[in-house]
Design brief:
323 residues, alpha+beta, 60s Ribosomal Protein L30, Chain: A, Phosphoribosyl-aminoimidazole Synthetase, Chain A, domain 2, seven-stranded mixed beta sheet, six-stranded mixed beta sheet, 37% helix, 24% strand
Length: 323
């Protein structure tokens, strides 16, 4: 729906706009000198966990991730709040903002202000401005045939948070998924920069398949995933089998149905998870095959949950293949 709404909007011809909304990238990039550019993004959403402090942490980490996915360094942040003044005590908003503030400070950025409105439902997010070298932008259009694909966080947050809402998830799993969603992608970005990745994106609401499709489409290639190599959060498969499929996952699957070839031997619950909308997911990174083993070794040392999950191949009949 968003693509349909955006398709007739004029695209800026400003030569300093290095990355705009027309490429489905994670953030916009505007050049201000030969060696400095601004990277900008914004994201906000309703609570996906009950604890307001951790909701603030997760929402801030999710927004910061767009800057990391481009290879940028977060600099400043603006809070964006919708708050039901007549329904919730101010202490809840204080906890949300405290969680967001601490996560932004962890990223080395500073909060410079924000904006709030009285709303029917609590919503929180952050607009982030960062700095980036204009010659080292990790966009989604640089993937090359032969590149090896890595994912830096397990998937399954969508089915788990849906299970949380249905009261079928135990406290141990709630804590685990909450900590993963609140984890910054800073270390993953640092490794990506160190190894001169060809392309990258963070995995959020469009799911692994959706964001991979954006890379494949922008880079004019196809992407092959090995289903048995994709890291999954604990009990994600069981929750998918139990029907904890979020509406966004079904929407992703419907939209991408003609853009992906899926082997008939793959468990349909794994297929559901490939389309599962993620919150503050990991980075999907395309690495030169000559450096893939070295990259994998570094990744395993610093982010053991990451994994090599596929490769970039010559453009075929579909943008995505799941074997």
């Amino acid at each position: 729906m968003l693509a349909e709404a955006l398709k007739n909007l004029p695209v800026s011809t400003d030569p300093n706009l290095l990355v705009g909304f027309n490429k489905a990238d994670d953030a916009g990039v505007y050049k201000i000198s030969d060696n400095i550019a601004l990277v900008q993004t914004v994201d906000f959403f309703p609570p996906i966990v009950d604890d307001p402090y951790y909701f603030g942490q997760i929402a801030a980490a999710n927004a910061l991730s767009d800057v990391y996915a481009m290879g940028g360094r977060p600099l400043t942040a603006l809070n964006i709040v919708g708050f039901p003044v007549s329904k919730m005590p101010p202490s809840i908003l204080n906890d949300v903002l405290r969680g967001g503030c601490e996560k932004i400070e962890e990223a080395g950025a500073v909060i410079v202000g924000g904006h709030s409105i009285d709303d029917k439902e609590l919503k929180y997010g952050v607009s982030v401005t960062g700095l980036i070298d204009p010659t080292k932008i990790f966009s989604n259009d640089g993937a090359k045939v032969g590149d090896v694909l890595f994912l830096t966080k397990p998937i399954g947050t969508g089915v788990i948070t849906t299970g949380i809402k249905q009261n079928v998830v135990d406290e141990e799993l709630i804590e685990l998924v909450t900590l993963q969603m609140s984890e910054l992608n800073r270390t993953a970005a640092e490794i990506m920069i160190q190894f001169d990745a060809h392309a990258a994106t963070d995995i959020t609401g469009f799911g692994l398949a959706g964001h991979a499709y954006e890379i494949a489409s922008a880079s004019d290639v196809s992407i092959e995933f090995r289903a048995d190599s994709i890291p999954l959060l604990p009990k994600a498969l069981e929750l998918a089998e139990a029907g904890m499929i979020p509406a966004g996952g079904n929407a992703n699957r419907s939209y991408l149905s003609d853009k992906i070839e899926i082997s008939a031997t793959i468990d349909d619950n794994i297929v559901h998870l490939v389309f599962d909308p993620q919150t503050s997911g990991g980075l999907l990174i395309a690495i030169d095959p000559a450096r893939a083993d070295e990259f994998e070794s570094e990744l395993m040392q610093k982010i053991p949950a990451g994994a090599r999950i596929g490769q970039v191949v010559k453009k075929g009949a579909t943008a995505l293949v799941l074997n």
